[in-house]
Amino acid sequence: MTVEANYERWAGMPRSVSQITEYEECPYKGWLKRAEKVEPRPAAWSAHGTSFHTAAEEFEKSGREMATDDVVRVFQDEYCDGINRDMGKLNDIGQWMRANKGTAVEDLEERYEAGSRQTREYVEYVRENAPVLWHPKKHKRDGVWQVADGTPAIELYFMAEFGGVKVRGFIDQVLLNMDMSRRVRDLKTGSTKSKFQLWVYGLAVNQLYPEEAPVTNGDWYLAKTGKVSRPVKLADADPDEITERIVRMDQGVKAGDFPPRPGFGCRFCDVSYACAFSRR
Predict the structure, then answer these.
(1) In terms of residue numbers, what domain contains 57?
(2) Which of 273, 214, 221, 276 is nearest to 96 (CA)?
(3) Cα separation of 268 and 265, whole Å?
């Protein structure tokens, strides 16, 4: 497809939290990735995060019955597959992005070990600390919320609307609080956290499931520490401000407004090698 065709297709698509925050950081980055289709440079942190999420999802969908070693093996297999796929895109690992000191090869090895440990710690955390809710008929019920057909809300897909703009995505987990209200949770292997993300997720779930008890808060499971963050209250969100941010991004894309915003973020930009404005 041509650049123009790619752009038109992107302009007409639903938005996502990652698209919105990326546009706010640097609109030109979105243009390079989605219109010019610049191939992002691989990074071991990407395979690390994706593989951890896959392992956690498999564990949760097993009803938390999967053996710990089997969950760790899911991470390891997914990680190796992901690294191999990325090597097919860029075989020179020295050109890969990395945040840690040392060589790119060392980064790959360290993340394999760290991810294996973090996956094991996640299973241990859930089994020791997951909320148990008492139910008059079932006596106890797991803290993962279930949609109407009984499917656990793990990697829950949503398509909601904010100010006429469709926003879609996948929520890592929707849990039940002890008071039977709901909580959205995002699993993090990195350090970057976004209240905006949790707020959008919470508002979207409340919009799509109005007959259920509301989402009142959200949090992050932080794989680096093996702990859950302090809760973020949905009551602290300003729905009008959130909608304004979403609409502003959507209008910017449709207006063809993609100014570059070079700065510190260029260091971590996966398409900066193709950017004439980069300050790497």
Answers:
(1) 44-129
(2) 273
(3) 6
Residue 280 domain-assigned? no
| Dist CA 24 CA 258 (whole Å) | 10
How many domains is the chain partitioned into structurally? 3
User: Does 219 lie in the same domain as 196?
Assistant: yes
102: its two tokens = 């040392």
Q: What pLDDT shows up at residue 280? A: 67
Residue 111 predicted with pLDDT over 90: yes
Contact 78, 114 (CB under 8 A): no
Whether 279 is covered by a domain: the verdict is: no
Q: Are residues 72 and 151 in the same domain?
A: no
Last residue of a domain, which of 78, 94, 129?
129
Residue 133, strand partner residues = 141
- Residues contacting 233, CB < 8 A, separation 6+: 216, 217
3-state secondary structure of 161: strand
pLDDT band at residue 229 under the 50/70/90 scheme: very high
226 and 146 within one domain: yes
Please give the residue that has the higher pLDDT: either 133 or 103: 103
Reported as a single tens digit per residue, the pLDDT across 40-63 is: 999 999 999 999 999 999 999 998
Q: Pick the residue with more confidence: 50 or 130? A: 50
Query: From start to end of 92-238, where are the E strands?
Result: 132-133, 141-142, 154-162, 165-176, 182-188, 215-222, 227-228, 232-233
Q: What's the rounded Cα separation, in Å, for the pair 106 and 111?
A: 8
